[in-house]
Amino acid sequence: MTAQAIKTPLERIQLLRRLFLQEHNCQIRYNAVHERDWSDSYLLLIDDVEVGYGSVNAQDIRGTRETIFEYYLVPHVRNHANLLFRELILASGATLIESQSNVPLLTAMLHEFSENIGAPVVLFEDHQVTDYTIPGIIFRMLGEEEKVYNQDPGKYVLELNGEVIANGGFLLHYNMPFADLFMDVKEEYRRRGYGSYLLQEVKKQCYLAGRIPAARCNVSNPASKATLLKAGLKVAGHMLIGYVKKDLLTFNHDHR
User: Fold this and answer.
1) Under 8 Å between Cβ of 169 and 154
2) What digits encode the pLDDT tens for the residues 11-70?
3) What CA–CA distance (Å, rounded) separates 25 from 49?
4) Sequence-ordered list of residues with C-beta below 8 angstroms from that of 143, at least 6 positions apart, any chain
5) Which segments of the chain have a pLDDT < 70?
């Protein structure tokens, strides 16, 4: 049996990516990396039969593409997952592996092939409907020419006594049907429940747009995590990242 990883145009892996997205049915954080041409694609073959793919991007968009961030195999060859992943490391020269913990196959490879693993980002999915009310608060769309307190506002705002005190929205460059929630509350109005109320209302608009809300925040931001949980989301996983084990890097060098 021969195993290979061959660099290929994105179009060659698109059918396999459909299977990947259908199987996991969750927001894929780096979905847009493919269409923006920020990644390299590799076909994975056993005895010259295409059985999966791997994708590699860069931690710095303009830098060397050194991070394996997506890995998929059709089910009947997953007993060869380690062998094919080693070939992917060898072909790509990757030095990092990054995975969502709710994507089991790549997460297993990360634990097998990397070290010094960190989990810097928390991932969220929608969980329950909330019904908060705050007297005097108006939730509305941001006016077309309206200026607010921050430079990159969302589509929706909270208004209190004629003042915009928070804004947010949802981003659509993720795999269907998921969208990514975001919000910002003016500093002097934080820790009063406005952020959770805003997200509650933005979630409604997200569903009306035919999208399922999801979100993320840094583990170093407990206030944002608490706001997301209060708004009815729950932790879906973490972004995990680790360095390819040094003996594998030596293996790569010896086989070049």
Assistant:
1) yes
2) 999 999 999 999 999 999 999 999 999 999 999 999 999 999 999 999 998 889 999 999
3) 26
4) none
5) 249-256
Helix-strand-coil split of the chain, %, nearest 5: 35, 35, 30
Q: Which helix H or strand E contains 6, and what residues bound it?
A: strand 3-8
H helix or E strand, kind and range, residue 207: helix 194-208
Structure tokens given for 136: 């005097």
Q: What is the CATH number of domain 129-231?
A: 3.40.630.30
Task: Tell me which fold the domain 3-121+239-254 belongs to.
Answer: Aminopeptidase (3.40.630)
Element (H, E) at 224: helix 222-230
Residue type, 161: N
Q: Which two tokens mark 65?
A: 């593409």
What b/e sequence results for 9-20 when a residue is b if at least 16 CB atoms lie within 10 Å of its CB, and e otherwise?
eeeebeebbeeb
Range(s) within the chain of domains with CATH label 3.40.630.30:
3-121+239-254, 129-231
Q: Under a CB-based contact definition with an 8 Å cutoff, are residues 56 and 66 in contact?
A: yes
Q: How far apart are CA 52 and CA 46, in angstroms?
A: 9
Contacts of 19 (CB under 8 A, 6+ apart): 72, 74
Tell me how far apart the alpha carbons of residues 220 and 120 are, in angstroms, rounded to a whole number.
8
C-alpha pair distances (Å), 35 with each of 7, 9, 10, 68, 181: 16, 11, 8, 16, 21
Asked whether the beta carbons of 127 and 231 are under 8 A apart, the reply is no
Indicate whether this model's pTM tops 0.85: yes
